[in-house]
Amino acid sequence: MFFSIIGAGLVVYGCFYTLATAIFDCDVQLGFLEVFGKSPRRLKGKVAFITGASSGIGEHTAYALAKAGVRLVLTARRNLELQRVKQQCLAVSLGQLADKDVLVIPMDVLDFASHKAHFQYALRHFGTVDVLVNNAGRSQRALFDDTDLAVDRQVFELNVFAVINLTRVALAHFSQKGQGHVVVVSSVAGVLDVPFSASYTASKHALHGYLNSLRVEKSRKNIHVTLLCPGPVFTNFLSEAFTDKDGEKLDGSTRSTDKRMSAQRCGQLNAVAIANKVSEAWIARFPMVPMVYIGVYFPILLKVALRLVGPEKLFAARDSKEFGPTETKEL
User: Which of 58, 258, 318, 322 could form a disulfide with 312 if both were Cys (CB 3.0 to 4.6 A apart)?
Assistant: First the structure.
């Protein structure tokens, strides 16, 4: 009788979880935290340092945090775009933020030597930084066989080593004050084995290795680590994506018919994940999140499914278009 009750409970739990993954546009934990967890308003008055804040996910994460009254350090290469984002942050804050509460720092994350100086400038301005949001990065569309090694190196310089170096700069401050929060915008490609983007997928897996190790090291130090893993999102990421050739950009674009999440919604869910200090969040429209659950908890099942349908179908679930040998320039 006892085991029957346990078995029935597991069946109900499994059915509930399956249904929830089909309803939420994120993992089940984050979906419940958005309703029942801490609101981003709990972060009011905190200081968040955001890289890649001039567009896309970084821009809309800044807006979501500004609405909650979070003071912001906006960094990216394009100063004019940063100024535009700053003005919008002030507007959506509805009077919670003044001009001095949003600091703009033009910054190239590939200039590793400048990381410490830029971070210290933010510290002089605000007196502290509470949250580091590593968002800057580029995607990729390429066949594994054709990719130049130079591309692999460039992807890792930007997506991995720039993140790790700036994180170590921030950790010196967090360790000194006894608390802090490191946030990294990864991707579902850091959880699943995504085809036709090998360099990018490897870079995101590397981030998970680095940051998960850091989380364990700091588990008793009041320093939190959050990995944000969005799936397909409406941004300009395809225009800047790496290809298989050194120095080449994909120069692609998304289409209104693509099955993607809006950058605004992604930014809001990012803010919820940050406020609740979740370890890892999966953020995507159906069916991407169920695919991640299957890949993590039932990897053999996913492998069998991919053998049956082919890797092109997995790519199509991400880009709403199947990948072919001639499509690296067409997406």
Answer: 322
